[in-house]
Specification:
Elements: E1 4-11, E2 15-18, H1 19-22, H2 30-37, E3 41-44, H3 50-65, E4 74-78, H4 89-97, E5 103-106, H5 112-125, E6 131-139, H6 149-152, E7 157-165, E8 171-181, E9 185-186, E10 207-208, H7 210-231, E11 241-244, H8 249-259, H9 270-273, H10 280-290, E12 299-306, E13 308-317
Parallel strand pairs: 4-5, 4-6, 11-12
Antiparallel strand pairs: 1-7, 2-3, 6-7, 8-13, 9-10, 12-13
This protein binds acetyl coenzyme *A.
Acetyl coenzyme *A binds near residues 153 and 247.
Amino acid sequence: MGLRILGTGSALPARRVTNEELSGFLDTSDEWISQRTGIRARRVCTTETLDDLATQASRRALESAGVDASELGAVICTTTSPDHVMPAEASVVQGSIGASCPSFDLAAACAGFVFALDVADGIFARGRARRVLVVSAERCTRYLDWTDRATCVLFGDGAAAAVLGAEGEGLLSLRLSTQPDTGALDLPGIPGSSPFDKTVRGPQLFSMRGREIFKFGVTSIEREVRALAADAGMEVADIDHFVFHQANGRILDSAATRLGIDASRVVRTLAETGNLSSACIPHALDHLVRSGGLTAGQTVAIVGFGAGLSVGSCLIRWEEGAAGTGPALPHAAAKAPLT
Ligand code: ACO
């Protein structure tokens, strides 16, 4: 499959909220959250908009790729928590970075980034573009029930992006699936105020069956990594890096144990960010690239899972000339709105 990641970038809001701070207004503790999830703190939007974060992450990815916005043939934003239902979040990003190409949003919850890679691969295969920007941007903290200790401690806000190129053979295998279940993870849409609406609606807040999702996450990761390795004619042990959805450190640990791989080979960013929904995977990938941990020729197995219930997984080979040659950028702070 002809696709290469040319550059990556991330942006997180400035405000860091620790577990101790949450225990000031919730019946919880740093000990419970750290031990059960591996999360110590998360970044939360205060003055930043999601438009700001998505734009900043996109600019950083373009800079690291050495690609000008005018070269982009499509901008795809994956999000379930946009600033706007219309226009697409991607259209706002496109305007801010100065691109002139089609732009649209894609909603596949936490698996969104991998779904977008598949769409981009199709765009390249049809010869419609040679450069595509995928930006995953989430502001989950806006829809959480901040009185529910079982869910609000898990999430944070952030955006991460990747610039993709049509050249190369960097995508070794890609798998998508959806197992429909609207109750396991649910966030109702805008209720509106139609005088004709007679439907009965619950609260407009995120809800989740946590234990069930935990098991779904572990079994999905194991199944997908084994299938990706088999598709590529490799052994799991031969894969160099593992980038999984950052929902819970114990999910990462259990998956590593089942796969028989050392937990140190599983990228772990959630301690300081919490769950960034679809932005988790590109953010973790950006972290791996900028920490210098990824070299040309190495392979990365990626698995995202979440509401749907959807799973997206892929195996990529990092190619010469891909991202990572630029200077490291801090994972902090869109401090002021960007123009
Ligand atoms: N602080 C203190 N106690 C808590 C907290 C908290 N923050 N949250 C729950 N508890 C309590 C519960 O009330 C319960 O108390 P009880 O025994 O008196 O009833 C006890 O802790 C155990 O609760 P469980 O839900 O069984 O705890 P568990 O160990 O399963 O951890 C968790 C819960 C962290 C949610 C875990 O199930 C999990 O991570 N699930 C997966 C979540 C996930 O993958 N989310 C991704 C969603 S996809 C997307 O990103 C949109």
